[in-house]
Amino acid sequence: xxxxxxxxxxxxxxxxxxxxxxxxxxxxxxxxxxxxxxxxxxxxxxxxxxxxxxxxxxxxxxxxxxxxxxxxxxxxxxxxxxxxxxxxxxxxxxxxxxxxxxxxxxxxxxxxxxxxxxxxxxxxxxxxxxxxxxxxxxxxxxxxxxxxxxxxxxxxxxxxxxxxxxxxxxxxxxxxxxxxxxxxxxxxxxxxxxxxxxxxxxxxxxxxxxxxxxxxxxxxxxxxxxxxxxxxxxxxxxxxxxxxxxxxxxxxxxxxxxxxxxxxxxxxxxxxxxxxx
Length: 277
Prior knowledge:
The structure is a single chain. The radius of gyration is 18 Å and the shape is globular. It is an alpha+beta fold. The protein has helices spanning 2-17, 27-34, 72-83, 90-107, 197-212, 227-235, 250-253, and strands at 46-49, 60-66, 120-127, 133-140, 182-188, 217-223, 239-240, 263-269.
């Protein structure tokens, strides 16, 4: 059935692309229309003003909340644009976007066959004006010993908003490949960069870990050559750690990576930072 769905979706995407009036339709919109997940009202985790710190209500551009199932298509668009656009053509880009959307849908907490909320969460940054998804991040808190930790296709990115980079850069690894809690799939819409969205998504992941997990350290992976990303994470309290200190090797940290360039492991101790969230 997944193969049939993939073929049908590709045909639809190609057909839409050949018709100018339909070119503006995104895969995210298609997924929202066909999603069977019930709509529910959400309370934003927080609403943030832009960096000008204007006190007026009209200056609040976005909010961050737990991502809904209907957000997965738009999130897939952002992730694919951030990671795959430099090495795909029109057709292969659509295929990668569909694969990413299906992967996100299959692991969304609302999916009965997916992880429970206690094992991880997805976060979306949305425009306060129209609710459009403009940023996305995930955090996995599933215990390495848990039987619920099955394989997860982590469609990470390299070079996200505010100079960030993330996770395994498009790799597909088993959940026991990196330590938990683990932050990944952090990306922001190109037109919404430099507004602090990546920072607030990071804070949302940290807050979730503090509220749900006994382990008060959050891990991530980033390319060693991506100085801008490393600088961003360091400015948010993360530091490179030696994998050997947590019984891992460099090979473990780089397992499943589909891109060239060494990955390093970074972490932040969250104990004592509750007041910042």
